[in-house]
Every structure is written in C-alpha cells, then in structure tokens.
Amino acid sequence: MGPLAGLRILDLTSVLMGPYATQILGDYGADVIKVEAPEGDVVRQIGPARHDGMGPLFLNTNRSKRSIALDLKKPAGRDALLKLAEKADVLISNVRPRALTRLGLSYEEVAAANPGLIYASLVGFDQRGPFAERPAYDDLIQGGSCLAYSFIRAGQRPSYVPSAIADRIVGLAAINAILAAVVERERSGQGQKIEVPMYETMISMVLGDHLGGLTFEPPLDKGGYARHLSPDRRPYQTKDGYVCALVYTDGHWQRFFRAIGRPDMPAADPRMATFAARMKHVDEVYAELGQIMLTRTTAEWLDIFDKADVPALPMHSYESVLEDPHLVATDFFEMVEHPQEGPIRSMAVPAQFSRSKARPSRLAPVLGEHGEEILSETGFSAAEIQELRQSGALCAVEGE
Questions:
Q1: 184-197 per-position pLDDT tens digit
Q2: Prediction pTM value
Q3: Could you list the residue range(s) of the whole structural domain that residue 197 is in?
Q4: Which of 22, 25, 105, 128 could form a disulfide with 100 if both were Cys (CB 3.0 to 4.6 A apart)?
C-alpha cells in the first residue's frame, strides 16, 4: 500500500508532461484511471515496438495506471466521464481549457458533479495572459524559457536539451500542486481548480539560476550564472574516454592537487586560492583542469577522485548505465514480464518510504484494457456498458 493508496485520479493527459506526473502518483499508490481517446495516446506510437501502440516511451510513462478509451465527443462518453468524476479525488488534464469547455467538461461543469474534486489543468501558458490559447510543446518552452539561449552564453550554438526536460519538470511541479491541493482539501473539505503553466514554471526554474544581476534595478550585469555557462563546464576528456567531476570546494581543490603530486596548489595560484577567485576566473580554472584531465585514463581518475573524496562519476551511455555497479546493487533496473509485451526492463521508484513502500502497481496498459472493469465498479450495469460500446462512446480493447 503506497502512501497515496485510496486516492483516485482521472487522468485525461497525453504525450509526456501529464502522463509522467500521473505515473509517479500511481507508483505512490494512487488509483490512476487513464482516459484515452479512441485512437489512444499518441506516445503509444513512438519508438521501436513489438506490438502497435506499445512503444517504449508509452511503456515507461504509463505504468501504474488502468486504461479506459472513451469518445468524449459523444454525449454518452461525456456523461460516463462525469459519472467517473463523481467518485474521483483528482481530475488532471493537459487538454487546452477551451477544448474542454467545448466538450462540456469545464471546471464548473465537472465540479457540479463532484464539488470536492481537485481539477488540475496543465496548460502551456498562464490563462490570464495573451498566450493563453497557444499550443505548447517541450521544444517551444525550452526556447522561450531561455534554455536554448543559455547554450549561446556557454559559447555553443543555440540548442535544446536532448530530453523532454520541460515536460518532466512541469510534470513534477504538477505533482506538487496537486498534492498541496489534496492536503488543503483535508482541512477545508472543499475542492478547487489548480493551473500549472509550462512557460512560467520553466522560466522560474531557469532564471532561478540565471537571473543574476538582472535581479537588481538597475541591473548589475546581463544575467547568467558564470559557472554554469563556462564553455569548459562539461565532461572532462581523459586519455581513453570521459569523466564527470566537480572539484568545487576549497577542500576538493586541496585534496585534488595533493593526489596528483602538486600540494603547493591551489594556494600558489591566486585564481584558485579561494572560492570567490575561482568563480571570478571560472573559465580559466575549468580550462586548466581540462588539460590536467588529459594526462590519465578514466579509471585512474575515478580512483583518484574516490580516494580524495571529490565528487565524480563516469559519463554513461544509454547502454553502459544499465551496468552501473551502484544501480545494479540497488536493483534499479528490473526485468519484468508484461502480459502482452513479454520481458521488458522497468525502472524502480526512486523515492524510498520506510512504511508505505511505493512500487509500480501494474505495467502500462493496452488501450482500453480496463474499460468494463472501471465502469462496472463505478456503478454501470452490464447493459449500460454494452450500450456504451454499441454507441461507440466506449471503445474496444485493441485486438478485440
């Protein structure tokens, strides 16, 4: 029984931001009902797959959920969702609010069915602003939130982080907001609508590091955290590969130079003597460290850093991380048997709870796999379920 056992969530999200959030809530014990359109979440089609609609992005973002496929454009589908909402604690959606209103699923309409519901709307932009109705995707938000520009300041071409980092970060922000609203409801007994915008959430995250001198009026500089933007802040090349290390505190630098036979440093170099001096000359410091790193192999450096108690890790590939000795020891990667897909690799829930252990409750579902089960436990009779099927409002399980 995970810490969120007993919490029921209606998940009207697709792609990555919302599904990532609801997977974590499901891993923590919530009963997550994934409401999919007849064609299913588009992420089902991304990546190599053994069966259509069961790609790896979907498998790795939709475990711990049950799936029901409803056509919400049909009155019967909309009515079925409202009946599901009557027994739900949270409804979470990343459908644009205007589209939900057209479907008759605005906050006011859903709250009429369940006044205690937490209605979480994951949107691209704060709905009070002129961008309210614009579509938003990870790439756009990375650009608008200054991430792409940060590469320019670091001496590179403007780039996107090669991961759906905005989707994932905003998904985590959504979890925070949802659980805060759940706690508040325990005190007030009232539901409410919450809104989590991608744009503002990511700007808050990025500028937490990089607002810099622009914090002040008049500005003290053009913004940017110098260490993060140093062109040599990257994995260090060694004789035979790369290593990731952060020689950061005064103690790190002293132990590092002793380990390589230069105990006179960093005191002998004013640029390295203090934390403030290193931050002021960070580009020169990192460049010099980069030259030193070329003198030994990755294995030699990892041994040196370990003995000197300096933070370091190997630079992993997608394949080598599977064999990381720490992750192997903690059973982070586990081979599990999916009822349709056969053996698949699953990742553990990172957070550890001493009593209410969090773990995946089920593997990612086939489209509409649990439709009849969900409707039946909500109070629909067999005849009503059959009627929903015949009307096309409830879609059949793939393969039926």
A1: 999 999 999 999 99
A2: 0.95
A3: 8-205+349-391
A4: 105
